[in-house]
Design goal:
CATH class of one domain: Alpha Beta
Shape: globular
Strand order of the largest sheet: 3-2-1-4-9-6-10
Largest sheet: 7 strands, mixed
CATH topology of one domain: Spore Coat Polysaccharide Biosynthesis Protein SpsA, Chain A
Radius of gyration: 20 Å
Number of strands: 11
Distance between the termini: 51 Å
Order of helices and strands: EHEHEHEEEHEEEHHEEHHHH
Oligomer: single chain
Helix content: 25-40%
Structural class: alpha/beta
């Protein structure tokens, strides 16, 4: 009998966050193949970030079970704690053999077959994209942090390393928490919660220093509870960092949404760009050696055109110039 799988996500109120959740679910229902009708659970886990009734109705229409369960009471100003707190809760209350946590800012383009973990594996995950707070080992300035973290999580073996997907740095095992599949009986999600609660003092807010604590806490927890052969590294099409596409080595770079299972990016987040273009349009238009003519590429562009704010006159003018073939080539060559 096939193992049961359930999907878990956070949804919070406020403009782009709700839009991200709706796009993720819409793409999943559209392109996830045999998972298309799998059960998705959405949770709001912080007080004061209520999801609009309109969004709840849209999620319900796509057969998503949404609940408000206030779990993050210790760190209301550290939203990244939502993940481990929610995942631990899901591990206790959702009856499924495999739980898959999905960041809300994902977009799916094909069936995520690797979520069906082989019995040999307890967790499926991708390495982090960049080194950031990672450590290369004893001489690294971040090494003290990792030794402290390993002590908290109970890591005994200090020889677990990964290679980051974009900047290709060999560092202590540091995985990205945007897409995580675990065998529920392994207890990884509950242990993740315990690690983050020891790592962060109650009431902590988000800072530059602790921004990646939840990911590093997950990484240390996995190292503490599993042997290397029990961790499955999803292939390159999973949790694909589309915003870093042009910086990826050719061995890791994919050239079409037809080859990608899911991308990870903030397509609804306003960011201050060098010029005045819209971030999501720049992300999708400035992809090197990418097929812009596929139906899935057009599907995403059409969705974003419809659900993002309409361009101002200034944006329209800049974008018409910037994305003309000659200007686009010049600007892309400058990074």
């Amino acid at each position: 009998m096939p193992e049961s799988i359930a999907f878990v996500m956070c949804t919070e109120g406020g403009g782009q966050l709700e839009q991200e959740s709706l796009l993720m679910v819409k793409s999943f229902r559209e392109f996830a193949g045999s998972f298309q009708y799998a059960q998705i659970y959405s949770f709001q886990v912080r007080e004061g970030n209520d999801v609009s009734q309109e969004t709840i109705d849209k999620l319900t229409a796509m057969d998503v079970k949404h609940q408000k369960v206030v779990l993050n009471t210790k760190y209301p100003n550290y939203p990244l704690a939502n993940k481990p707190l929610l995942c631990a809760y899901a591990e206790q209350v959702i009856d499924a053999d495999i739980l898959v946590f999905l960041d809300s800012d994902l977009v799916f383009f094909s069936e995520p077959q690797e979520f069906r973990l082989h019995p040999d594996y307890d967790v499926g995950i991708r390495p982090e994209h960049h080194k950031m707070i990672g450590s290369k080992g004893a001489a690294d300035p971040n090494e003290n942090y990792w030794m402290w973290l390993y002590g908290i999580a109970g890591v005994k073996a200090l020889d677990r390393f990964v290679t980051t997907t974009v900047d290709q740095q060999r560092i202590r095992a540091f995985w990205n928490s945007g897409v995580v599949a675990v065998r529920r009986k392994s207890g990884i999600f509950t242990a993740w919660k315990n690690t983050i609660e020891q790592l962060l003092p109650e009431g902590a807010g988000i800072t530059k220093e602790n921004w990646y604590y939840e990911q590093s806490a997950l990484s240390a927890t996995i190292c503490a509870l599993t042997s290397p052969e029990r961790v499955f590294n999803f292939t390159v099409g999973y949790n694909y960092p589309i915003h870093s596409h042009n910086a990826m080595p050719l061995t890791e770079r994919l050239g079409s949404f037809e080859e990608i299972v899911c991308i990870h990016d903030h397509l609804f987040r306003p960011r201050k760009e060098r010029y005045r273009e819209r971030t999501w349009l720049k992300t999708l238009k400035w992809l090197n050696s990418f097929n812009f003519s596929t139906p899935k590429y057009q599907w995403l562009c059409n969705y974003l055109h419809e659900h993002n704010p309409k361009p101002t006159f200034v944006q329209q003018t800049f974008e018409a110039v910037m994305f003309s073939p000659v200007v686009k080539q010049i600007l892309m060559s400058r990074g």
